[in-house]
Every structure is written in structure tokens, then in C-alpha cells.
Amino acid sequence: MTAPQEPPAVKCLVWDLDDTLWDGVVLEGDTPPPFPHAERTLKTLDSRGILHAAVSRGDHDMATAHLDACGLGEWFCAARIGWGDKSTAVRRIAETLNIGLDTIAFIDNDPAERAEVAAALPMVRCYPAHLAEHLPDRAEFRPAHVTAEATGRRLLYRTEWRRRQAEEEAGGDRREFLASLGLVMEIAPATEDDLARASELTVRTHQLNSTGLIYSEEELRRLSTAPDHQVRLARLKDRFGDYGIVGLSVTELTSTQSVLRLMLMSCRVASRGAGELMLAHLVRQARAEGRRPVTHFVPTAVNRTMLVTLRFAGYVPVTTAPGDETPMVLEVPADHPLREPGSHVRLLVHDA
Amino acid sequence: MSREPAETTEEITRFLSAALRRAVGPDDDYFTLGLVDSLFALELVTYVEVTFSLTVEVEDLDLDSFRTARRITEFVHRKTGADDPTPLHAGDN
Description:
The structure holds two protein chains of two kinds. By secondary structure, chain A is α/β, with parallel strands linked by helices. Chain A is about 35% helix and about 25% strand.
């Protein structure tokens, strides 16, 4: 027999709610109080950077409302409440959080549920409810490194979850959903503190990326103070939180043209109309400064989205098919009407 | 083999209504309605290419060809049935 390999530390504890997290069943009109020991475990594990999720029986809205009423909602970063197999729900949680099933633990007072999950997902570690208070003492719930960003990670997951929920709930009209987000985009010159993130974006953004040029922090620092260049950053916020810096533009200024050397937008916010908004601003700004809005474009396997976005923003090709080394050049004709930013987002522009 | 314009428009409005999760009429300009983002724009272009077996070139990516279902119909028929120059409608320009 070989020594069993040590399983990886648990990254997410998935809770059954009724008779596990709280003392009773919420479906029956009860308002069961949470077990004090379960609450302690929630907080202890959270401080170690371990996430919590809920997979339980009953009505989704009622269960999550009760979680909130108990003041426990904020500890959870995902929930699936319903009547299907719990193993399926646990699998979905792992997908949502983008973590492996072998880093998931499941706690439930019902042995049949534990057996179902264990049979379908043998890599998920299952625990009976009475162990809830002892979980923090176990080796698998003691991660080797507890990073300072542990709490931040929970907030990040939770914010994403709430956004997704809002989107699902909005169901119907897309414009209403966008309007309900209260989006605010801020466009401003790059400052010293932003350069690292800006440089990282040039490496990591591929789809909404016009030329794929990679700029180091050093280059961006130089360009942001060069008189013939403009470096602009876009930040996005909504009522759920701050997305941080999501977009970057590097523009070269000549006496007659404002040449977009690189424009990119994080794919996380592509569905918020962020790319269109920033482009429209750049076109407007170029014109206001008396320059023709020009952009370069270098096609890749994944950036056709950017080309469509540029074309729909009014950029028209002025060169024939690009050579191997030269980028395609596009320009917004002088008579192209400028689209006003959509009413779903507020635009704040800061200039140097 | 080629489709009737009315049929094409109907097919396109069905796609648009499903994708934008609201009823979209043949002449609704969903761009000015603020319903379009980069992801949807690419989805729309890809849909047109796949459904009507054509390639949308850089030059074809004119917003005016894509802003309503009827405009897309005209574009599709221009690309595929170049021999049918009959305007599909009048006066909605």
C-alpha cells in the first residue's frame, strides 16, 4: 500500500442550510436561528480565506432572504437552492467559483444527501452537521498560506455573484438591466499608481485589443508625460462595486491626426458597452482638439470584436489590406455623426 | 434557392428579439436604443455570416448595414443575390 497523497486544502465549504447552518427548516414558515457554533465556523474559515457557499432544499428567494435576515448573507459567495441533485448543485458551485471539486467540502445533516454527493463526486469531502464546530481544527481547513487578500477575494466573488443574480432577475429587457446597474465610467490620464495595472492590461487583454502592442510600465511612464502622446485609463463602477481600471488608450498626436496606437478594454466589461463608450469619447476628444481621429488595427485570431467595435464607432479603413508588418489604418470621416453616450452610463472625464 | 426578403427579415427579427430579450421590429434601430455592446455586435455579425453563408468583410462592417433588421436583409441580399437590386421597401431611410 502506498501512503495516501495528502488532499489539497479546502477552498470552499458548501453548506446545507436547514438543520445544518440553522436550527430548523426555513420552508415551513419558521425563522430558524443559526447555530452559534456554525456562525463561528463561518467566520473563522472566512478569515483563513476559505469561501462559503450554500446548497440547500427549498425556495431560493426565501432561503437567501433568511440568510440575509440572520446577517449571514455576506459570508456566502454563491448559493443554489432547489430540488435537484445536490451533487449537480455542488458541481455548479465549483464552476461558478472556478475552483476544482477536490478543493470543495460539503456539510449536511442528512446522510442520504451526503451519500448522493459522495457517490457522484468522490473527490468532494463530506461532513455531517455535528462536525461543523470542529471543522476549523482539521488540517484540511488550515491552508498553509493565509494571504492578506483573503477577505478581498470573498468580496470579489460575492460582487460577481450579485451582478449575475441581478442579470438573471432582470430577465427581460437588457436596457433596463443596464440602466439598473448605475454604471459610471471615469476616463482620466494615467497616474504613477496606475502604471503597473495599465501595463498588465496590455499583456492580459486580447479580445477588445486593437493592436496587441505591449507597453511596459517604463514606456507608459514616458508616454504619459510626452507632449506628443496621451495615455488614458478608463475605470468603471456600478452599484455593486468597483471594477477598477478596465480600459486603456495610447494615442500619438501629430499636427493633424490623433492616432490610436492601442485601445483595449477588459472583456469583463465588454457586455456593459464600455468599449463603445471609451471609443466615442476618444473620437470626440480628437475632434475637439482639431485632429482627425485615426486608429491602427492589427488583426489576431481573437480580436475581431475590436474591429467590429471600431467599424461601428465610425472608423473606416483608409489603407488597403494590411501587409505583414504594417497595421491597418482606419479613420473616422469628418461628416460622421458622433453618437452620444447611451443613457445607461454616466461618463466622467478628467483631463490633465 | 434564395430566400424571400420578407422571410429573411423575419428570421433576423426573431434572432434579434431573442438575443436582445425584447421584441424587435424590422425597422427598430437597436443601436440608437442603446442595446448594443461589443459582444453583441460580434455575435450579430457572426450570426449573419453563418445563417446566410457569407463573409462580412472589413468594408462591409458599416453600421448603416446593420442597424435594423431590414437593413441587414438588404445587405444579405446585396451580398448573396446581387442580381436582385429591387428595393425591399421605400421611405425608411
